Amino acid sequence: QPDALAADFESRPVAVPDVIEDAWWRLGVSTQILKYQWEQDGGMNSMLEPAPRPLQPELRQAALRCMSRLVHFSTMSQSSWCKTALLFDTYCAKVEVDVELLPMTCVAVVKIVSKMEQEAYPGNSEGNWSECAEELRAWLLPAGYNVPEATQELLLEQEGSVMRALQWRMTGPCAMQWIFTFVTRFAALAGLSFQEVQALATNPCEHARAVVMSEQASSTLTHGTLAIGLLCLGVVEAGLLPLEALQPE
């Protein structure tokens, strides 16, 4: 578990040659950064306790698809979509989501992540965002939900509501960030080539998107634990380690 692993940095420090630590530092994945990310991941646990009435899986998947389109229109990366999914799941764990405001919530979450990444909004992004919100609204209306149109006033109000519900804690690393950290550190240890690094990261990233789409983040399945599990499978699949080396005793 992330909290136990974070504690291990203090209780059982691993002896790593200085040349490897220097390489990790140059690549932006130093042991200090890894420890900090584990602490962030562990800190998210308290925010991922299931809500009394969790969002139905089909509604969550519809929201994630809507946010995927929003991320695409905003010229953000797929890693950004993973961040929006984590932020959305954290919000859903904190409050009982008002389904009739779900389109506005999707836009609010993507806007927050975009601002966190300091992305420049394309000139027509606001129109595209409203269009995506309207598509989700049209999908919800036949199900009997009284979904209002996504006005700028409602969007701003919902953005503030999301931030207040999360108590402004919106910096937990997502699965894609974890995979980058783990793969980069492993590559430096194993002396992998650029092509080998790409091959090692490809499957975990693809599987991460599928798992995030189908499974809501929780205190027992944080994005950090998801990423390390997928990386272990990727290492075995690439033939870099035997499966027996990763099995617990």
Q: What report would you give on this structure?
A:
With 249 residues, the chain is mainly α. It contains eleven helices and no strands. The protein has helices spanning 2-11, 18-26, 31-45, 57-73, 78-94, 102-116, 125-140, 152-165, 175-190, 194-214, 223-237. α1 (2-11) packs antiparallel against α3 (31-45), α6 (102-116) runs antiparallel to α7 and α6 crosses α8. The longest helix is centred in the last third of the chain and has 21 residues, at 194-214. The protein starts with a helix and ends in a 12-residue tail after the last helix. Mean pLDDT is 80; it is low at 120-124.
Number of helices: 11
Compute the gyration radius: what is it?
A: 19 Å
Helix content: 55-70%
Q: What overall form do the CA principal axes indicate?
A: elongated
Distance between termini? 16 Å
Low-confidence stretches: 120-124
Give descriptors for this structure.
249 residues; 11 helices; mainly alpha
Set down the secondary structure blueprint.
Layout lengths: L1 H10 L6 H9 L4 H15 L11 H17 L4 H17 L7 H15 L8 H16 L11 H14 L9 H16 L3 H21 L8 H15 L12
Helix pairs in contact: 1-3, 4-5, 4-6, 4-7, 5-6, 6-7, 6-8, 9-10, 9-11, 10-11
